[in-house]
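Hi both,

Apologies for the delay on this - the queue was longer than expected. I finally got the flavin-adenine dinucleotide-bound model through. Below you'll find the protein sequence and the ligand SMILES exactly as submitted, and right after that the structure tokens for the full complex including the ligand.
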Amino acid sequence: MCGPASSLFWRSREPPSLYPPDVRGPGRPRGRRRSRVRNVDGHGAAASAGALRRSAEAHAAGRRQRCQGRRDRCRYLRHGGRPRTVGRPVPGAGLRGAGPGGGRNRTYRGGDVVTETGSTQRVRWDRDPDLYFNAGPSRLPHHHEAILGYCRDLGVPLQVMVNDNRHAFLHDADALGGRPERARRMINDTRGAVAELAARAVGPGLDRRLSEEDLALVRDFVRAYGELDENYRYRGSSRAGYAEPPGGPTPGRILEPLDLVDIAKGGLLPLAMLFGEIYEMQAPIMEPIGGMDAIAHAFYRRTRRFITLNAQVTRLRRLGCGARVTWRDRTTQRVRTWDADHVIVTVP
Ligand SMILES: Cc1cc2nc3c(=O)[nH]c(=O)nc-3n(C[C@H](O)[C@H](O)[C@H](O)COP(=O)(O)OP(=O)(O)OC[C@H]3O[C@@H](n4cnc5c(N)ncnc54)[C@H](O)[C@@H]3O)c2cc1C
């Protein structure tokens, strides 16, 4: 869901546009070019950040490759000697507009009917603003600055999403006799056991580039890293959790450390334990309050005058220096064509 580096609506006095000002083209009179987002879904559509990013990239690439003289000649011939400016269609923009019907950005709520190929299901839980399921994208990672910028500009309120839950159970049938364990215990006992092995290896002969002083530093670091005792042994840690929690006069009793070999039997566990370390998954992760489709609704509110719903693109053809889009109105079944200088294709 990355978008272009600059946001559409940051210039508040600009009229709503599908394109950042820098991709409109220098000196082009505002209002002469009208772009439309066309979407095949029955319920709604809006320009997606992905579509917008690709629009910016496609436009820049097109501009680089363009032979202006040839282009003008083409336009001149095509329109009977009258140069004409036509629109820039964007077939298949995702981030749907209203209702659970389009794009990969889907939020389901009580009472929604979900139709996939060959099956229809009704969402049976209560209809309540706080009860929803983001069945497609659910995370806005910290580095998706463009979509975060759109949320700010479009007034979509965000909240922190808990993406890495150390209280969750991790389970692999091959590990720990098939017993699920809390993520905090697995992660910290693994770190402790690995640190103990590392501490044993840190000594003369490990690496000739390291002086004795360096090795001592590394050993101290590894000890703190794994919470090892003074003999560089891992004997469990409060990081992994308690068998008896502390409180009042009770000091608490930490859990016995899990055995590294038992953990290592679970081939799925390294990924599960490192999930929160993946770049896209690192905290903080944000989400729109009330469901991911809040972004699509906000885009739709701002850009609806450019959008044609129920428009199924059936053919794209080069036409001289431009392109022809053939599309079918799924309501009336009428087939239409649209000639354009550029077509920005965002169908998956
Ligand atoms: C389960 C899941 C989880 C995900 N989680 C995340 C996440 O947490 N964070 C994240 O950033 N990204 C996530 N993604 C990826 C993210 O959803 C997509 O990158 C993003 O939605 C793509 O948007 P889009 O507009 O490019 O495509 P889409 O959302 O797929 O929209 C394409 C649109 O084109 C329409 N279309 C298709 N054919 C035609 C045609 N012939 N004519 C007209 N219209 C047509 C489709 O109906 C659709 O509405 C996830 C995706 C999935 C499936």
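Main takeaway for now: Residues 21-162+288-340 form one domain.

I'll put the files on the shared drive as well.

H.
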